[in-house]
Write a structure and sequence with these properties.
single chain, alpha/beta, Rossmann fold, Luciferase, domain 3, GMP Synthetase, Chain A, domain 3, 3 domains, five-stranded mixed β-sheet
């Protein structure tokens, strides 16, 4: 294999060798779905690429894409690459201010508008002068129609060559703090990273995956889109909506499945709403019957055909991984970031342990700074931050390692444990630093808890804000239920505190009424906590809560 083989070279091979292979399957409503072969995909991508080239753009110009996951996200990206341009994908849940910032900062000349929930509210964020193209499943009457372009434009011919150093994409971070940063990735680096992922997870022809995590985020973009483009002979399915997710999952019957900790937790809580945890654990321990029960649970989740499942994007409680493995699911945790194109660490059958995020991929170098910060040098490393040479200088050590901002510990085998974020550490009045992430991981093992946020800057002790599990919220909180919840959470608080140092121990749980969501701005599009906003939302109530002295308080 030539060292310079790039992702488009793989795509051209699929177009020539397996043109009738169904690569993408898109739900179209009412339980129906449309299949797209490589021949159909490339026909549309080549025609739209030719149209983009006719618009007077310069090579390397940025083209925005605002869309939920769908077949035409993949096809749109291919059209952008074939045309000689750079993709700037925007999270489909972003509001007008962020859309405007990303479009203006990237200087995108065109925006492909795809499947969205409420484009009318987002449209004011599109800067004047940007040319719009509405993709299939996108809003009607917005700019030029993709279908019209395909119908009237001759396809771009030949095997377009992009230089290894050409920018394939700028990925804007979801912005848990401050403005999003534009992370630049070249064709060479995304290809090398995707090849490494393909080999490690053994993604091969015949494998199936469901694309539902945001494609604007590096996790889904790398593991699902780019890796599958290299393989060619796999099949990618899409989810129609949240309401149809289970049906979409069962249609796909994925052999490979990735998710984020919050969704793994919600899947578990859905199981617990139908069967008490203690009874399920009892059944799983019975020889022979336990395997059947585990298989039945996985079938109910649509995961019975999965040979490899992964969790990433944020820390996952070790007990949650162990629970899925007891069901018979081969769930492995990984660790990476936008800046290394998700090519950093992944657990393996030989090297895995709940609470650890795995071992480095082949070619990835790792070390810890004197302060315990994880430093990484990866083949998937970004070219840099777009228009931010100041950040580039801050983000790398003199010998070229990227400063991740995560604190960690390593075993001799290379297994890495993330112990918190350097910038998330805070001091209580006791004067010692508290790392919230490991404590939150422990708290979230309790089935009553969906999410938690540990804080307490300058306070007498740390505390935790708690979002109750959806199953509890839905059944209603009458007096008897509240009493039971308080009793169980008070016992859990005492249990957790036993495992913490004195300065880390929590004074109280505060149960929050309104769930944290992407829509209310308290979670990022990848479901990470926006800590500063969460803390600010309760700042005026803290004094009263601390004065209350109860272990469990209702906000």
């Amino acid at each position: 294999m030539s060292a310079q083989k790039l992702i488009l070279d793989y795509v051209f091979e699929h177009e020539a060798k397996i043109p009738q292979h169904v690569y993408l399957t898109q739900p179209t409503g009412g339980g129906a779905a449309r299949d797209y072969t490589w021949a159909q995909i490339m026909n549309e991508a080549r025609r739209v690429a030719a149209h983009l080239k006719s618009m007077g753009l310069s090579p390397g110009d940025r083209i925005g894409m605002l869309s939920k996951n769908c077949a035409h996200f993949f096809i749109g990206e291919l059209a952008i690459w074939l045309g000689g341009f750079t993709t700037v994908a925007i999270f489909p849940t972003e509001g007008e201010a962020t859309i405007r910032f990303v479009m203006e900062h990237s200087e995108a000349k065109v925006l492909l508008v795809g499947k969205l929930d409420n484009y009318a509210a987002q449209a004011p964020g599109v800067p004047a002068g940007v040319k719009l193209i509405s993709m299939p499943m996108g809003p009607k009457g917005v700019g030029e129609s993709w279908d019209d372009i395909v119908a009237k434009t001759a396809p771009l011919e030949g095997k377009v060559q992009r230089a290894p150093t050409d920018l394939a994409m700028i990925i804007y971070t979801s912005g848990s703090t401050g403005q999003p940063k534009g992370v630049m990735h070249s064709f060479e680096r995304i290809t090398r990273a995707a090849e490494g992922m393909r080999d490690r997870i053994e993604f091969k022809a015949g494998d199936r995956a469901l694309s539902y995590l945001p494609l604007a985020h590096v996790f889904e973009r790398a593991y699902i889109e780019c890796v599958s483009m290299l393989v060619g002979g796999g099949q990618i399915f899409f989810a129609e909506s949240l309401d149809t997710f289970l049906a979409d999952l069962k249609r796909a019957r994925p052999t490979l499945f990735i998710s984020v900790p919050r969704l793994w937790l919600k899947f578990q809580q859905g199981v617990f709403s139908k069967m008490p945890p203690a009874r399920l654990e009892f059944l799983l321990k019975i020889p022979i019957l336990g395997k059947r029960v585990g298989k039945k649970v996985l079938t109910g989740l649509g995961l019975d055909a999965v040979r490899l499942a992964g969790s990433g994007s944020a820390p996952i409680p070790g007990e949650l991984i162990s629970w899925y493995r007891r069901l018979g699911l081969r769930l492995l945790e990984g660790y990476a970031m936008t800046e290394d194109f998700a090519f950093s660490h992944l657990s393996s059958d030989e090297h895995n342990e709940p609470g650890y995020v795995g071992v480095p991929y082949k070619g990835v170098e790792v070390k810890l700074s004197e302060e315990g910060e994880v430093l990484i040098k990866s083949p998937g490393c970004m070219v840099g931050y777009y228009k931010r040479p100041d950040l580039d200088a801050e983000s790398f050590t003199e010998d070229g390692f990227f400063r991740t901002g995560d604190k960690g510990e390593r075993k001799p085998s290379g297994l890495l444990k993330i112990t918190g974020r350097v910038k998330e550490l805070f001091k209580t009045a006791k004067g010692k630093y508290v790392s919230p992430a490991p404590i939150e991981n422990k708290l979230n093992e309790q089935p009553l808890i969906e999410l938690s946020c540990v804080s307490g800057v300058g306070q007498p002790a740390a505390y935790a804000l708690i979002i109750l599990a959806e199953s509890i919220r839905k059944q209603g909180l009458d007096a008897a239920t509240k009493e039971r919840v308080e009793k169980e959470l008070a016992a859990w608080l005492a249990d957790v505190n036993k495992g913490l140092s004195g300065y880390e121990q929590l004074q109280m749980f505060v149960i929050v009424n309104e769930p944290w969501t992407i829509e209310n701005g308290l979670l990022t599009p990848t479901m990470k906590l926006k800590r500063a906003k969460i803390e600010a939302s309760v700042a005026d109530k803290l004094e009263g809560w601390y004065a209350n002295k109860k272990p469990v308080i209702w906000a």
